Amino acid sequence: MKTRTALLLGSLSAALVAFALTSPRVVAADKVDPAADAKAFQNFFFQKFPNVKHEDFVNGPYSMNEDMRRQWQEKEEFPPYEFSLDAGKEMFSTPFKNGKTYADCFPNGGIGIRQNYPYFDEKEGKVVTLELALNRCREANGEAPYSYVKDEMASLTAYMAFTSRGKPFDIRIPDDPRALAAFENGKRYFYTRRGQMNFSCASCHVQSPGERIRAEILAPALGILNAMPIYRSEWSGMGTISRRFITCNSQTRAVPLEPQADEYRDVEYFLSYVANGLPISGPGARP
């Protein structure tokens, strides 16, 4: 076991060095340049997996393993997230007690806008995610907010993601030092090791995509949020982005943050921005 761990850490270290060479911003952030970061981030994956079509990275482990891909394609004929999609569509169109609906809170009536979230709110000075915006809409109309990790939020975001399928992520970072700081904070969180296992998000999703950890094939970080929310067999249900971040922290034996904590919102901002140009594929399904 110790030998296996040593080999794994050695492999991770080598991959980290390779990534650092293609992404100087990871090791020296004297000037924030999100566009250069995104280009280096994408190029790292494109060069590491030259046989994967760029738009296919949004399909996570299915882009890495042919057997899994065949099984997934068969499942997509009767997708396990379909029940959530139907529920989300009904919830989205059902009026609040005051007669208004979610459509009153969002541009274009909330249809086909998933690719624009999260965004940086210049008035608030913070990142606003789609999950957060949905709960703010509910509260503004006299409704109680939904849990960020349970079925109702997953269903709503599943429906909204579905209306954006195929549209490329188009996350903007305004020329505002607070927005740049949020991007950097998200990147820092992504690469920082934590927990008893001393793993960062990048340990699994930059250095080891395509490899197995237990029975699971690790997904690439590039495009990892394009498929959210997702149905996971290990959950026997749907999960939101908030739930995924909390689960990842728990799996590395780190202390999870509260859903929609600034750090989680910032890391979502970072991961979404570096996936700009890749299509929304949510809702997704994973083992």
Summarize the structure.
The chain is mainly α. It has helices at 2-22, 24-27, 34-48, 66-75, 82-93, 130-140, 151-162, 177-191, 201-205, 241-251, 262-273; strands at 119-121, 126-128, 212-213, 216-217, 230-232, 237-239, 284-286.
List descriptors.
3-stranded mixed sheet, 11 helices, two-stranded antiparallel ribbon, 7 strands, 287 residues, disordered N terminus, globular, mainly alpha
Tell me what the structure shows.
The protein has helices at residues 2-22, 24-27, 34-48, 66-75, 82-93, 130-140, 151-162, 177-191, 201-205, 241-251, 262-273; strands spanning 119-121, 126-128, 212-213, 216-217, 230-232, 237-239, 284-286. It starts with a helix and ends with a strand. It is globular. With 287 residues, it is mainly alpha-helical. The longest helix is centred in the first third of the chain and has 21 residues, at 2-22.
Number of distinct beta strands: 7
**SSE sequence, one letter per element:** HHHHHEEHHHHEEEEHHE
Strand order of the largest sheet: 6-5-7
Approximate helicity band:
40-55%
- How would you classify the helix and strand content by structural class? mainly alpha
Shape: globular
Alpha-carbon distance between the termini?
Answer: 25 Å
> Kindly state the mean pLDDT as a whole number?
90
Strand content: 5-15%
Low-confidence parts lasting 5 or more residues at pLDDT below 50? 1-29
Number of separate helices = 11
Q: Biggest sheet: strands, sense, closure?
A: 3 strands, mixed
